[in-house]
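Components:
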Amino acid sequence: MKIHEYQAKQILRKYNLNVPNGIVIEKAEEADGAWDALGSAVVVVKAQIHAGGRGKGGGVKLAKSKAEAQEHANSILGMNLVTHQTGPEGKKVLKVLIEEGTDIAKEYYIGITLDRAQGKPVMMVSTEGGTEIETVAKNTPEKIIKETIEPTLGLQRWQAARLAYALGLSGDEVKQTIKMLTGLWQVYNAEDCSLIEINPLVKTASGEIKALDCKINFDDNAAYRHPDQAELRDLTEEDPLEVEASEHNLNYVRLDGNVGCMVNGAGLAMATMDIIKYAGAEPANFLDVGGGANVETVTNGFKLLLSDPNVKGIFVNIFGGIVRCDRIANGIIEAAKLVDIHVPVVVRLEGTNAKEGRELLAQSGLTLTVAESFLDGAKKVAELANESKR
Amino acid sequence: MAVLITEKTRILVQGITGKEGSFHAAQMLEYNTKAPVVAGVTPGKGGSKSEHGLPVFNTVKEAAEQTGANASVIFVPPMFAADAIMEAAGAGIELIVAITEGIPVKDMQSIIHFVRKSGSVLVGPNCPGLISPGIGKMGIMPGFITSPGNIGVISRSGTLTYEAVGQLSAVGLGQSTAIGIGGDPIIGLPHLEAIKLLAEDPATDGIVMIGEIGGTAEETAAAWIKEHVKKPVVGFIAGVTAPPGKRMGHAGAIISGGSGTAQSKIEAMKAAGIHVAASPAEIGITMKRALG
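Structure:
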């Protein structure tokens, strides 16, 4: 799960880590009050969306007066912010963070994430803060310094010190950085994070070490032991269809193609998306209805796919292992009674009781196409969906 | 012959009294001809019998000592699953197959290094398990789609494994062992280790390796294959059309920071001389051609 910058900074404050003072507002007129409360000669107005690259997209602006702060808040709130991470459609800004200005002397990068190859967390720092870390990793990988963390021991003081010195810091700055890095590890570990990024961490003109930005992702699998994290979820940041899917326990990701697909199993669902493209159409979604697919999940799946206006055809691809294909077929027949299926549907059933399932569909009187094979199904649905475009 | 699950395997089921554990224990009892299911473990229910008539123990150690079990398949809920894996490793169980989906990464990173040092082989978690047709299975793979033979199959996902196995059977190629290695970011037996087992297995003549977006395990395995494997290897990577930054069902299936893309994995496979199937419907036929 992703959270906003201002929420991430609240967590950092809870762990006594140095972040700028700031106030979140949802209406431009609240900027006045925020300016007064902060009492800073310069403030930064920052769009709060779940995507990076906000500055380049015009979502982060400096203000040197109350009037200017309000002007920026007014222009950023409600704007459709497009960054390299939002996709071309952008994201609407509903909240801005107004933060005291910081006199930056130098910018750094800090990140903690899982190193999958080692099965251990790794902390990364770089002197190339403020820029995109992917670019640094690609062009100048030697400028990223890493420390692998022993999961059960945690980040050791010497490791934090090594990283601080590697950033070229000295004296009290090193002490402050050790405190920051140790604290970030504590956040990562205690809150079951999958990612923490501070970009930039800054040294101020007066020698203070501060986290100017903060990105935190949580491990969804650990949500059960952090009931407080559920309150940080911002549904406006998620695709409404994905939100609906999650309420029905369906694993759904929306894409922008013309063929909706309903599949059992995550790997096969991805492979089905791929084969749709291979057959000449574009997948409209990832949808895994899981191993226990029944009338309810199939009905909800159809409703979901059909509420996407881009969907011009549907491919149901089921490999029955534990789940029986005749039950899936009955699910489709029942679902068709409950939902108005207004696009062509191609069904491919394979595995347990596939023959019975195909017979049930053939006898149902439903106008759907039963595919002979995986590739045949993909070709048929691609053709039908592409046809309706013309 | 086969790998991992063989004629010497004696299986216990951790979580045998739960719904999933009980159902799949029955399926294994029916399918397994040479690798018997001998016991179950559910803390608090020791001394009783499962609905299949198997003895149930409170601890893995007890179960292993009294029944000679040397392998365990785990159907324990996510919040207790890492603990169950560590218990099995601590009790000297040689082969542990963890089916459970949804274990927090923190739990896995805390126990995985102990498990590896213990000498136990862990398959999964978040996997369909493994099957050696004609011998037996551990996990949830449907037995009827398989047929005994000489092709090894490795995959991160469940139904995509069935797809590959079904295609192989359809073109007349049986399987030695199919291994579902799991879809989580931390798994016990990554692609490379699974490949090594099949590469060294005299009863395996060809290997199907199915990967997906996320991580770099397929690239690592491909580099090793290039240097060491003479048997034909067929590859497929799911997720060419997956967008970055989105978790595609499996916790580990996510493209992040530009790494873990299908393209980079496919390129690594091609560079290693692996026969990459053009579509997921052509895995079986690609192996048939590769064998000549």
